Amino acid sequence: MTKRNTLTASFCKTVTEAGRYYDGGGLMLVVTGTGGKSWIQRLTVNGKRRDMGLGSFDFVSLTEARKAAFDNRMAARTGRNPVAERNIPTFADAMESVIVLHRDAWKGDGSEKQWRGELAKYALPVIGQARVDRITTADVLAVILPHWNDRTATMGRVRGRMKTVFDWCIASGFRSDNPAGEAVTAILPKCKPATVHRKALHHSGVAAALDAIRGSNRAHWATKAALEFVAMTAGRSGEITGARWTEIDMDAAVWTVPAERMKKGRAHRVPLSSRAMELLQAAKRHADASGLVFPSSTGKQIAGAVLSRTMKDMGLDGTPHGFRSSFADWAAECTDADRETVERALAHVNSNATEAAYRRTDRLEARRDLMQAWAEYLAG
Questions:
Q1: The predicted structure's pLDDT at residue 47
Q2: For 73-105, what is each residue's pLDDT tens digit?
Q3: Which of 76, 88, 194, 269 has the fewest Cβ atoms surrounding its Cβ within 10 A?
């Protein structure tokens, strides 16, 4: 019978002569000619002899090495391959791989920040350092349930993001099931999250808000111009802060937002009113090497939160996104514009596939008249 536990902690610490020193059970301490020491385990996996490293003696004690070696032997006896399993990532590492995979497809940096922020806050403290093949549905529930009733919508996103990470793990061969899948959905209490709409000014108050923004001496010129451009175009903040001069046709007074920067992934032409053109002419005087229409003071894209914070700091009701609602309400109450033209102005995609197939015009000229009327309404 092979002897076990033949080494001592004192010997391992003091030995300096190069060689292999066996502890039994396939575990050995390897000492190099330069004095380096590391643990190696020799074991049989699926009928083949394999050597696997267990770490440096500087970081792995004799007791820890013995425990790891024992666990590996037990795993090999049940048909598992502990050598291959050492390459299985932790949840945190798998999350990074998924983010890198999707980063180029995400619009701006909002998605990456949201992924990192929410998973770092809720998932990583619980399962971040766990190997993905060892995470169970119970572990996923331990992330979600403590916050489910108070933050239902947030935890719904967290569950969806965990599910995406585990889908990647399945595709990569690290596990065969998804612990954040349907079983979690079935177990979670039915709790419909309350819909919270972003605050929006009544359309009659937008002109005064824009006057206040233009007159502010605290905000950077690009922030003020971007806020007004949001209102004038009824666009989304990210589309405006990411706008580049190459997207603007000054002669035709049209701004074409490329598909990769649109929420629905479809290019969108925006007819520019006379006031919108004035804003662009003024912005031209500040043009820099960034190519951005409204660059920040550091020449980078203005962060979306800056626009909202500027309005809040000025004591203005509503949000930049709320200007879209203000425009839609004005169009419904004060014009005879048809619903399709207004929806096109908001870059909403027709959810009816049959209708969308036959209505392929983007109604640019009808929208041009509507946006000019909106600009004149705001000018008083």
A1: 83
A2: 998 888 888 877 777 889 999 999 998 888 877
A3: 194
Q: Which two tokens stand for residue 120?
A: 């770092």
* pTM for this prediction: 0.53
- The one-letter amino acid at 138: A
Long-range pairs, 236-239, Cβ under 8 A, ≥24: 236/263, 236/321, 236/324, 236/347, 237/304, 237/307, 237/308, 237/320, 237/321, 238/107, 238/108, 238/110, 238/304, 239/268
Please give the average per-residue pLDDT across 38-55, as a whole number.
Answer: 85
Of the listed ranges 110-114, 117-121, 283-287, 323-327, the one predicted with least confidence: 110-114
- 122 Cβ contact partners less than 8 Å away, ≥ 6 residues apart: 143, 144, 147, 154, 155, 158
| Residue 128 DSSP SS3 | coil
Order of all β-strands in the sheet with 37-45: 19-24, 27-31, 37-45, 48-56
DSSP tag of 358 = H
**What distance lies between CA 199 and its chain's CA centroid?**
24
User: Is 56:38 a contact under the CB 8 Å cutoff?
Assistant: yes
Note every long-range contact of 184-192, with CB atoms under 8 Å and residues 24 or more positions apart, other chains counting.
Answer: 184/137, 184/140, 184/141, 184/144, 184/159, 185/159, 187/137, 187/141, 188/141, 188/144, 188/145, 188/148, 189/148, 189/149, 191/148, 191/149, 191/152, 192/152
